[in-house]
C-alpha cells in the first residue's frame, strides 16, 4: 500500500475508465486523493474503477464528459467542485488513435484526434487553472497552488509514420504544457508531462497480443518488457505530490529506454 502522500487532495483524471487513466486513478486513490473518474462511454467500467478505489479505502466518483466539448468540461468541473470542494490535481489523460497512411487520412480522423488529445487538454487545463486561482493556496495540503499532469507520449519526440495526427497532437501537448508552466509558475502551479512508451493497454493491443508482434515491439525497447499502467500510476503520484515540488515544465519519459533508439546499438 502506497504512502498517503495526497491525503485531502482531489484529483480529476480524464479517460480514467480504461488503460493508463485507470491505472493512474487507482494509484492516486491509493495515495489518499479523492478521485474524479472521468469517462465518455462505458459507465460500467468507470463505476468499476470507482468501486476499486473505494474498496481500497479511498473516495471516488465517476463523471461523464467528452473532453473536447467546452460545455461538458465546464459542467464536469462544476460537479467535481460541488462533490469535493475543489480540484488540486488534473491528469489530462484522455486520448485516442485513428491511424492511417497520411495520404489516406480523412479530415475526420485528423480532427477527432486533435479534438480529443489536444483541444481536450486545453479545455480541462483551463478549467483547472481557473479553479486553482479561485481557491487559492491551502498550505497544509500542498506547497503548490495546483498540479497539472499532461499525458503525452514518446511520440512528442519520436516521429510516427502512419500516425501523423497522433504524433502532431503529442507535439502540441509538449508546447501547451511548457507554455502553461512558464505562464503560471509564478503562481505556484506546476505543469508537467508524462511521456509513456509502449504500455500494455487496449490502445496498442495489436503491438503486443501475438508473440510475433510482441517480439517485434521488443526490438524497440532496450529494457525488454512492455510497460504496465501501474508504472505510470507511480510516476503520476510522484508528480502530483510535493516530492516533485521543484519539477515543472518537464517531459518525463517512462518507456523502458525506447527514446534511446536501440537500433543504433548495432548501426549508425
Ligand atoms: C501509443 C502506443 C504506442 C506507444 C509507443 C503510445 O503513445 O499510444 O500505441 O505503442 O506510444 O510507440
Describe the structure in your own words.
The protein is of the alpha/beta class. The chain has seven helices and seven strands, in the order E-H-E-H-E-H-E-H-E-H-E-H-H-E. It has helices at residues 19-30, 43-55, 70-84, 107-135, 164-184, 211-218, 229-240, and strands spanning 10-13, 34-39, 59-64, 89-92, 146-151, 189-196, 251-254. Strands 3-2-1-4-5-6-7 form a seven-stranded parallel sheet, with helices on both faces. The longest helix is centred in the middle third of the chain and has 29 residues, at 107-135. The protein is globular. The model has no long low-confidence stretch (mean pLDDT 97). The structure holds beta-D-glucopyranose. Beta-D-glucopyranose binds next to loops.
Quaternary status of these chains?
A: single chain
Q: Any low-confidence stretches, pLDDT <50, length ≥5?
A: none
Main beta sheet: 7 strands, parallel
What is the CATH-assigned architecture?
3-Layer(aba) Sandwich
Proportion in β-strands: 5-15%
Number of helices: 7
What is the H/E order? EHEHEHEHEHEHHE
Strand order in the largest sheet: 3-2-1-4-5-6-7
CATH level 1 class label: Alpha Beta
CATH superfamily heading: NAD(P)-binding Rossmann-like Domain
Could you tell me the radius of gyration in angstroms?
Answer: 18 Å
Question: Could you tell me which ligands this complex binds, including any ions or cofactors?
Answer: beta-D-glucopyranose
By helix and strand content, what is the structural category?
alpha/beta
Helix fraction by DSSP (H/I, runs of at least 4)? 40-55%
Distance between the termini: 45 Å
Structural domain count = 1
What does the overall shape look like? globular
Amino acid at each position: 500500500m502506497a504512502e498517503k502522500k495526497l491525503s485531502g487532495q482531489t484529483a480529476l483524471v480524464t479517460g480514467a475508465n480504461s488503460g493508463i487513466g485507470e491505472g493512474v486513478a487507482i494509484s492516486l486513490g491509493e495515495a489518499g486523493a479523492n478521485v474524479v473518474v472521468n469517462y465518455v462511454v462505458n459507465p460500467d467500467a468507470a463505476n468499476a474503477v470507482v468501486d476499486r478505489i473505494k474498496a481500497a479505502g479511498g473516495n471516488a466518483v465517476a463523471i461523464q464528459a467528452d473532453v473536447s466539448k467546452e460545455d461538458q468540461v465546464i459542467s464536469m468541473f462544476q460537479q467535481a467542485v460541488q462533490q469535493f470542494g475543489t480540484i488540486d490535481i488534473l491528469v489530462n489523460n484522455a486520448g485516442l488513435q485513428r491511424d492511417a497512411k497520411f495520404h489516406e487520412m480523412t479530415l475526420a480522423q485528423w480532427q477527432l484526434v486533435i479534438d480529443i488529445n489536444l483541444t481536450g487538454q486545453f479545455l480541462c487545463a483551463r478549467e483547472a487553472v481557473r479553479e486553482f486561482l479561485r481557491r487559492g493556496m491551502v498550505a497544509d495540503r500542498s506547497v503548490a497552488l495546483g498540479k497539472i499532469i499532461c499525458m503525452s507520449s514518446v511520440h512528442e519526440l519520436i516521429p510516427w509514420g502512419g500516425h501523423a495526427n497522433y504524433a502532431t497532437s503529442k507535439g502540441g501537448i509538449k508546447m501547451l504544457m511548457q507554455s502553461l508552466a512558464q505562464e503560471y509558475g509564478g503562481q505556484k502551479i506546476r505543469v508537467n508531462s508524462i511521456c509513456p512508451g509502449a504500455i500494455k493497454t487496449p490502445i496498442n493491443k495489436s503491438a503486443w497480443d501475438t508473440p510475433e508482434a510482441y517480439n517485434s515491439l521488443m526490438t524497440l525497447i532496450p529494457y525488454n518488457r512492455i510497460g504496465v499502467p501501474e508504472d505510470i500510476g507511480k510516476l503520476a503520484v510522484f508528480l502530483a505530490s510535493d516530492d516533485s515540488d521543484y519539477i515543472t515544465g518537464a517531459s518525463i519519459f517512462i518507456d523502458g529506454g525506447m527514446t534511446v533508439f536501440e537500433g543504433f546499438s548495432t548501426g549508425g
